[in-house]
UniProtKB/TrEMBL annotation:
Organism for this UniProt entry: Falsiroseomonas algicola
Subcellular location: Cytoplasm
Lineage: Bacteria, Pseudomonadati, Pseudomonadota, Alphaproteobacteria, Acetobacterales
Motif 'HIGH' region: chain residues: 132-142
Name the UniProt record assigns to this protein: Arginine--tRNA ligase
Primary location group: cytoplasm
RNA sequence: GUCCUCGUAGCUCAGCAGGAUAGAGCACCAGAUUCCUAAUCUGGGGGCCGUGGGUUCGAAUCCCGCCGAGGACACCA
């Protein structure tokens, strides 16, 4: 048993040890591709390894021959019942039931920490997510990224990484200016202006963009605080220099406050909020440009027009360009516009330099799929700034289509069918939202069926998993909630039914699921694992229904009862631990 | 035109770092309830993994072409 209680890792260590003994002259790096996995077909045994096939070439031994020798070695292990060569060179391993059952006390002893990865060296991983523009309330479009990012951060922590969860506030661009103008309009209204909305829109540089009601209270608040000092005579627009900075800062703060509340309602947390304006104010843009200039990765040039459809207003313009093509991008990317001001990309480069300087060896970004075209240039920038030492992984999240009564709910601000994040949470609850958002790969489109998500049936995974946990708790309550430490000592030889052993084998796979999901940055795998685990448990439960000798609590068999209570408690522990990674609360009962 | 993501059962989707006979749910058909919650479970049918090549002991998985879907494509964020 390894410290992490990972049966597969333990067996892999045995396999590698056996290989080393068989092939003493072979350098150990040849064992890197050795896998010990659950076989696809349970009839093959408890575990299978590809070791003979993977090592055969370097060892200059035919795979079947090597497999046979390996089997001899492995069969000699006390925890192995049999090891048999199969197919092109697989080794199928059948474990003693005692070894399989040893997972149960390991889970109970470790508690929620079962499946935790080893402590990782090298500094924290930075995970940036949500980063919605502070121009309005959060809607369902932001929701998926928020949930995926938050779950990914929790998953990486589970896997042993230190994680810094970050929100990048886009408070420096044209959108925020437009927001300020829109809030100013509500302020003038609060003062009782006689101006019409259309006149105001016409007099505003980029028009009146944000017309939603949510800015009305902001206007009222501005009047309460600043009276009429920000306006001209008779509640007419004053010169922007008198009010723009004030209104912008106030409105951004109001929007961020609302966003924070929404995120809190979703159970999403961040450790750090980084302001784009602050990043620029601290001079990171200049530092980034200087760093790239020093590496001779910056020049002034004119880009080719985009192939295919050229924008109508395209004309050749000299710009300050970053040599992204040297780092795998398709074209070099502008850092400054033709008027010399910085591009959004430049600010983002600055932000990433700041992160690199803060000492993160790994950066993760969760973006909407519409930003997919942006990935290469950002990775190029990070590679350039860090001399390829810092990695940037981007997780893209696809669109969510909200369905109700079998009809897609159209997202339209004008038609008033705009679904805010808060609406969604109010309708189905935070846990259902989070779990459901994680039942698909992040980059696959998904339907969010409001009716299905609250349905209490097999085809609602949220319910199915929660129900399994509730059943576990029900059994444990019946038994008077025995202490886990005591159950960890229980003899388990009574656990012999195939359904019981199948459940234990599933639990044995939890650590490797965590590890693999974290490495792939795919939190949805946790949701699928929990569904499988819940299924194994429901099967077992029903076995007790068919055959009363398999019920968990048997007054006439105290030892079997204790063994099964240990099994149930271990199941509940992993269900809770998995739900925690998803940020979902386990329920005690379903009534 | 270029780039990105994707194409697996009637539907919605898994498939872990290339592994053995490709899985789950829904839907359909047939069953199980004196019981710790039947809100569950058992069994059955259903597939040229878009398509054509390549890499190798072995490909849904990796590489290339084609077809199809969605997205992104200078000075927006």
């Amino acid at each position: 048993m390894t410290p992490t209680h990972d049966l597969f890792a333990a067996m892999r260590a045995h396999v590698v040890e056996a290989l080393s003994a068989l092939l003493p002259e072979l350098p150990p790096e040849n064992f890197a591709r050795v896998l010990v996995e659950p076989p696809r077909d349970a009839a093959h045994g408890d575990m299978a390894t590809n070791a003979a096939m993977v090592v055969a070439k370097a060892a200059k031994v035919p795979p079947p021959k090597l497999a046979a020798s390996l089997c001899e070695k492995l069969a000699a292990l006390p925890v192995v019942v049999s090891a048999t060569p199969a197919g092109p060179g697989f080794v199928n391993i059948k474990l003693t039931e005692d070894f399989t059952r040893s997972v149960v006390p390991a889970v109970l002893a470790a508690g929620p920490a079962y499946g935790d990865g080893p402590k990782r060296e090298g500094g924290p991983v930075n995970v940036e997510y949500v980063s919605a523009n502070p121009t309005g309330p959060m809607h369902v479009g932001h929701c998926r990224g928020a949930v995926v990012g938050d779950a990914l951060a929790l998953l990486l922590r589970k896997a042993g990484f230190d994680v810094t969860r970050e929100y990048y506030v886009n408070d420096a661009g044209a959108q925020v200016l437009a927001l300020a103008y829109a809030a100013y309009w509500r302020y003038l209204q609060a003062l009782g202006t006689t101006m019409t909305e259309e006149d105001y829109a016409a007099a505003t540089p980029s028009g009146l963009q944000y017309r939603g009601d949510y800015l009305v209270p902001v206007g009222v608040a501005l009047r309460q605080i600043f009276k009429d000092t920000l306006s001209g005579p008779g509640a007419t627009p004053a010169d922007p220099s008198l009010w723009l900075d004030t209104v912008r800062d106030f409105t951004v703060e109001a929007m961020m406050s609302a966003i924070r509340d929404d995120l809190a309602a979703l159970g999403v947390q961040h450790d750090v909020f980084i302001s784009e304006r602050q990043v620029v104010a601290e001079g990171w843009l200049e530092k980034a440009e200087a760093a790239l200039t020093a590496k001779e990765l910056i020049y002034t040039g004119v880009l080719e027009p985009p192939k295919g459809k050229t924008p109508d207003d395209w004309e050749p313009r000299p710009q300050v360009l970053f040599r992204a093509t040297q780092f795998g991008d398709d074209v070099d990317r502008p850092l400054r516009k033709s008027d010399g001001s910085g591009t959004y990309f430049a600010n983002d480069v600055a932000n990433h330099l700041a992160k690199i300087e803060r000492g993160f060896p790994q950066l993760v970004q969760v973006w909407g799929a519409d930003h997919g075209g942006y990935v290469k240039r950002m990775q190029a920038a990070v590679a350039a700034l860090s001399d390829r030492k810092v990695s940037l992984d981007v997780v893209l999240t696809q669109i969510v289509h909200v369905m109700k009564n079998g009809e897609p709910v159209r997202m339209s601000k004008r038609a008033g069918t705009y679904i805010t994040l808060r609406d969604l949470i109010d309708e189905v609850g935070k846990d259902a939202v989070r779990f459901t958002m994680l039942t698909r790969k992040a980059d696959a489109q998904m339907e969010f069926d409001l009716d299905k998500v609250v349905e209490q049936s097999r085809d609602n995974p949220v319910f199915y998993v929660q129900y399994a946990h509730a059943r576990c708790r029900s059994v444990l309550r019946q038994a008077g909630d025995p202490a886990l430490a005591g159950l960890a000592e229980a003899p388990l030889t009574a656990l012999t039914d195939p359904a019981e052993l199948a459940l234990i084998r599933r639990m044995a796979g939890w650590p490797r699921t965590v590890e693999a999901a974290a490495a792939a940055r795919e939190p949805h795998r946790i949701a699928f694992f929990l569904q499988d685990l819940a299924s194994d448990f429901h099967v077992l439960w029903n076995r007790g229904r068919d055959d009363s000798t398999l019920r968990f609590i048997r007054a006439e068999e105290p030892e079997a009862t204790r063994a099964r209570l240990a099994l149930v408690a271990a199941t509940a522990t992993i269900l809770r631990s998995g739900l925690a990674v998803m940020g979902v609360e386990p329920v005690e009962e379903m009534r």
